[in-house]
Amino acid sequence: MDRTQGQAEAVEQTAAASVAPAVASAAAGPAAAPAPGPVARIVTLTAGDFTLTVNPVDGSEIEPRRPGTGGTAPAKRDAADRAARDAAARPPALPGPAAPAPPLLAREEERERLVRLLGRGRSVRLTGPAGSGRSALLDAVGADCTGLAPDGVVRLSGYGHQQAGELLHALYAAVYEASAERPERTQLLARVRDIGAIVLLDDLEMGGAALDELLRATPECAYLLAATPDTRAPSDDSHLEEVFLGGLGRADCVELLEAGTGRPLTEEENAWAGDLRFASEGLPLRFVQAAALLRQRDERNQSSAEDDDDEPGVFEERPRDAAFVALPTLAEGAAPAELLASRVSESARAALRIACALGGEMPHHAHLPALVGDTHADAAVAELLGCGLLTPVGTRYRLAAGVVRQLEEAGFADTAAEEARTAARHYAWWTGHASVTPERVASEADAVLAALAGADVVAAVLLARTAAPAFAASRHWEAWERVLRSGAEAARKAGEVAEQAYFHHELGVHALCEGRLDRARAELEASIGLRGALADKRGTVAGRRALALVTDREKAGVEVSPPLRLEPPASASEAVTTVVPAVSKSAPTTPMAAVAAVAPVAPVPAVAPVVPVIGRAQAPTTLSEVFEEAFPLDPKPAVAAPVVPAPLRAAEPRRKPVLLAAAGALTVVVLGTVVSLAMTGSDPETPAGGVGPAASSTPTAGTSGGAGVPGTGGNDPAPDPGTTAPDASEPASPEPGLSPDPNQSQRTPSRKPSSTPPSRTPSSTGPTGTSSNPEPTQSVPTTPPVSTPPPTPTPTSTTPANPSATA
Questions:
Q1: Backbone dihedral region of 713: left (phi > 0), alpha (psi from -120 to 50 degrees) or beta?
Q2: Which of 84, 270, 280, 524 has the most crowded Cβ, counting Cβ within 10 A?
Q3: pLDDT digits (tens, 9 = 90+) for 373-396
Q4: How many CB atoms lie within 10 A of CB 314?
Q5: What CA–CA distance (Å, rounded) separates 20 from 22?
């Protein structure tokens, strides 16, 4: 009981009121006595092809809709119903005298333009920063557009909506009289297409494809979308008109301050207003808050001046020496939340702490007496709204832009966890009460979700358990799904298996109503498993019935398209020739360059390779041919190379180094063989002993009558000190009278080593060379040469020039 008033507290009164019907039913007789516990709020809805019975005790039950029920479009609301619906969509009236609304200044041009565009059926996007007066301009435009559209003016709030589906359902519920039906997507799109209304959508938070979906679904509606510059821009195909809102001028700011204070400004206040306009860019919200600062300053200074001669009483809290309150500084005028909050009542400060704990959401003024603990706390909302700390959002209020951050810095969020826990327990009691309609719970959806996010796991499970059936019955299914997911996570952390099974069952039913069969099967199977572990027969039966509906929907659903079958590629004779772009001859051709994407095409012939100036069908066999190919003397016609198929040419870059190495090795071997044959043919006879020296890869052409060293040519250099000059009587030296070999005279000496290893014995021959390019020649060994295979993939054997040399 209240010790001062002698009345029962609110919690005790409501508890007694809830117990009284149960007592009366028990007195009526045993047949009418209900089960112990709270009265279950069971609501039956039509959701597409299903009939949904929301049961808060055992879980919702879903079954196919009976033939002949539902399926027809309901009637539209008349003018009286639309007016009542529009009044219900506005924020609630606050207790106490109504505060005068701030005037709408310097918006006449934008107002006329918006009305003109909406009258032509054009949709407009009104863009302005937070606090620029977008909501006030929407109210004025809505009043001017009354009677332009057949379905009137519809006000919606886009705060918290990132997809178009929930907004379409809200538009459908505002125009049609369908209190117990939530159509499926196909029915919804067919019915909203016939709506012709002017839709005022405030606090838009979506853009791009989601906004295009909303506009395409309602072609007969003209939208006025109010958004901030941070909102995602619409797509290029949306065809929206853009109207931008800026700040107010200096004269308009002064006029707004005078309207808020009720008196003309002084010179000092005029100068302060000019500086404030420059700092805040002329936003009307800042000057509404500045007017509240000036009113509070006037009240303090006027009260202190009047009570100067009066002696303060014993019980008065007023200080004995009251100081004069000076004009706020420019920083306090730009961020006035802390100063304004310090001058309001204690109930208003407690309401601000609750709003900070709920992420800026202000509960309905009817909840503040229970949350704050003051019977007169419901007047705090009007006090905060007059100070500019609150702003209307749909059917509720929340803290204005920037106020949450300023209050958190001032320490109003220090008790956020305790305030959120208190709010969660209060809303858990309120949403579960049988006298509260689902529509009232849906109007407090944002505050309930904020309390659910900040509460501990025990309070979160209790709140989700009681709020989920109310959201389902009110057809606010986006909030229903969010509450179920938060409740399932909180139940898992708290270890409440029964509650976790309930949340999974509800998630499965929700997914089934939305047509997401895979998600519905997963959630229902999880719920059945948990309830089977708890031996909950009634819950298991309800889950199995819903799972059977999922199976039936999967079997009766749209036939799945057959799998893609790839046909085998057509043969060369059956290939279809298609037109392909010309291929440059300088670019390499790959086998897959001209393959078509759908039909097989004929193979494209390979492009003839570019051949050098001198081309040979075979590899060069002599040293002179190698140099002639590298440095051509006379240009020769190129030999046409044979056409190589495309798959074979793909490996040509890898074989080129190997072929060049093999050709070089073959050249060296052939050249050594030719020189050996030439030298062997010039010998008159074989030396005694039957063993002759091995042939050298470089011929020696020195004579004993040379001008240089004996045994060498006249242009040959002197031999090294460690070597011995060749003897003219050696069999390897040609006779002086013989003429040199014509092949040897035309060849250019090679610097490549011979195929036989050089000898390091001192009896080797000295350097020899030709007259054109002298070069030292390595000595030949006296031992029989050993044949070494060349470094080629196929070894090549050489035949010795002298059969007796290999013996």
A1: beta
A2: 524
A3: 999 899 999 999 999 999 998 888
A4: 4
A5: 5
